[in-house]
Amino acid sequence: MRASLLSLVALAVGVAVPAAAQLSRTAQPEPKQGYWWYQAPPPKDDDADPEALAKPRIPPMAELARLTPPKIRKLIEAQRDYAATVLTIDAVADFWRLQDFARRKARAFAGVTQVAMLHHPELSAKSANPMVGDARATMGAEKEQVRRHYLRGQAGQFALVMFSRSSCGYCRVQWPIIERFREETGWQVTLMDIDQRPELATRFGVEITPTTMVIRRGSAQRMVIASGVESYPNLSQTAYQAVRLLLGDIRPEQFLTGAGEEDGFFDALSAGPVSATDPRVLGGDLVTSSLEPRP
Description:
The chain is α+β, with helices and mostly antiparallel strands. The protein has eight helices and six strands.
């Protein structure tokens, strides 16, 4: 009886030990994960090529028409690179199909733009700058008359100085143009040879000749209007703009606004300020020309 009891205990122990070992093997805790526990990244596939060639997906026309221009450009570039690599007829043809779509898209935009300009003529430059030769010539003559009249009115306040050197051949070309300016506007013009007076080059910052400068009498205000040879129309236009700028009649943003173009299409400030330094912009809020806050 005692022997059979011992054999039963031995059998139970023999069965329990492997079961406990198996339980201990299966109940291993998984590695901790989370913000505070480091987990090694999976090994990278060294065989993967980041620049592997992939055929771009060309969407159907209805989907292609809804893509923005940057996405269309990116798709065209991808198809171009793919076609140039595989050099198959189908790939090259797909590239040119995309190019043709972009061409038709641009043509359509140009057509809608034309209609929009007809509906909103204030957005077109044609009213301010006629394209017809006779009309342009007439408008140019009117602007020149306005400039001449304005500059003649400022002859007592401003003078023109041309800095030159005795060895400067271009100075001999520019000086007759300066003399014509004197005849047209009545301004005093002066020729300064910086070889004879080198201190003037340092004082006025002159490095090349000829240099033409507008100087305001009785003031430190001055402005270079030409470096090198400049034609008379350009010289007259730049002098006109320089005087207006020095007198405060225009802001630097309006330097390309010609005579008679104020408050028009070519006036950068005709619809309000465009710069954070404009006096009409206070703390980032737009105000009217009378400096009264807008509602």
